[in-house]
Amino acid sequence: MATQTDLNETARAKATARGVLLFFGGVLVGVLLIITAYYLSLPEKSEVVAETDNAIEEVAGSPTEIENQADQEAKPEEVQFSDDSTHTLYQNVGLGFSLKYPKDWQLKTGAGNNYDKSVITLTSPETLANPNSGVPSGESYLKLEELSVYYYETLGDEIGGKLNGRSAKTLDELIENDSTITRLSDITINGLPAVEVLMAGHYSSYAVLIENKGHLYKLYFTSAWEKKDLTAEQIQIRDSFQILP
């Protein structure tokens, strides 16, 4: 027969078990309530997508704005071309000059050697078809272009003086200090003072030097060994040269 002490211990054990069950049951219910509240507080998927799209659009701009920005970046306005019935107008806004050349002539940029690259070179269809045309018999020289235009930020950057350690501050000084340059005459091109010269290299070539606001422009006529060798087209191109406002 169970004693009173045994009965009391059994009762205490049952009470303890019920307390433990109630405690863990309460914890489980609390966890479930927290999880339920969390999921109920979440926005609908469509709302999240819309908010995300709006945020992206605010940061990056509308699709149209993005396309316009890409177009502006892909179409720099430094160089512009326009045509009439016979000629193309080349305008280099970045370097501040323009000229016209026959529409059927070829224009290239960045030709020349690594230490003296031209801005543009122009070549006639005749020279493209026959680079040896007009070259004296027995010479191996090939005419690669009719005209090259060079730009130097300062007079001291002109390649001849730079290679020989002579930094000219005026156009007269540049010509006088370089034995490879022979002065021919002073001319005016569209109101711009310019100097006609012969520049010696492997062969001499006619060139025009123009200084404007400290910048130097050199029109180098590769195929004209002397001034008298200039063609009518070359003269027209030379005389079309202008400094942009």
Overview of the molecule:
This protein is an alpha+beta fold. It folds into two domains: 70 residues; 167 residues, Protein Transport Mog1p, Chain A, CATH 3.40.1000. Helix content is 37%, strand content 28%. It has seven helices and 13 strands. The chain has a seven-stranded antiparallel β-sheet. Strand 2 and strand 3 form a beta hairpin. The chain starts with a helix and ends with a strand. About 13% of the residues have low confidence.
Determine the structural class based on helices, strands and strand pairing.
alpha+beta
* Radius of gyration using CA atoms only: 41 Å
Low-confidence stretches: 45-76
Q: How much helical structure, as a percent, in the residues?
A: 25-40%
Q: In angstroms, what separates the terminal alpha carbons?
A: 122 Å
DSSP strand (E) fraction? Answer: 25-35%
The number of strands is 13
CATH architecture descriptor name of the largest domain: 3-Layer(aba) Sandwich
Give the CA-based shape. Answer: elongated
Q: What is the CATH topology classification name of the largest domain?
A: Protein Transport Mog1p, Chain A
User: Can you count the helices?
Assistant: 7
